[in-house]
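User: Please fill in residues for this 143-position structure.
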């Protein structure tokens, strides 16, 4: 499970060092793709394969499903961490997420997310007030 926030730097070759707490889970390879809110979703290869099985069950007749799958899968890239635990973020994904040198990698349960540090701070500031004001059940059975 991916938890916490980490602040790696993007190097001149478009690589980041994976957070130490995520390395074991991602040692077998990663799949990166476009995430919502202009971040990058990072899945272990195993988790992405399980997700893909669910995706395959979406009805081909649903335009919304087709549109989502096209955007989600067309941006996907399988990468293998090197011996220094670095992984290259493809240029199309770096551009999509507007990444600068300063990044934030967050744990989001079954995936990690890579954010430009400034974008993450803006998002978090906006969402923290919404989070504190949530008065109804957002996640069934949680509260």
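Assistant: Residues filled in for all 143 positions:
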């Amino acid at each position: 499970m991916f938890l916490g926030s980490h602040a790696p730097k993007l190097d001149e070759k478009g690589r980041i060092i994976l957070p130490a707490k995520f390395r074991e889970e991602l040692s077998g390879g990663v799949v990166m793709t476009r995430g919502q809110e202009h971040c990058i979703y990072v899945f272990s290869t195993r988790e992405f394969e399980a997700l893909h099985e669910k995706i395959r069950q979406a009805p081909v007749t649903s335009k919304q499903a087709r549109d989502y799958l096209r955007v989600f899968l067309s941006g996907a890239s399988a990468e293998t961490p090197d011996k220094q635990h670095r992984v290259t973020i493809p240029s199309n994904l770096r551009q999509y997420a507007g990444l600068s040198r300063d990044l934030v990698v967050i744990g989001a349960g079954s995936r990690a997310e890579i954010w430009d540090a400034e974008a993450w701070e803006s998002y978090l500031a906006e969402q923290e007030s919404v989070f504190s004001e949530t008065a109804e059940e957002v996640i069934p059975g949680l509260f």
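For context: The chain is about 35% helix and 20% strand.
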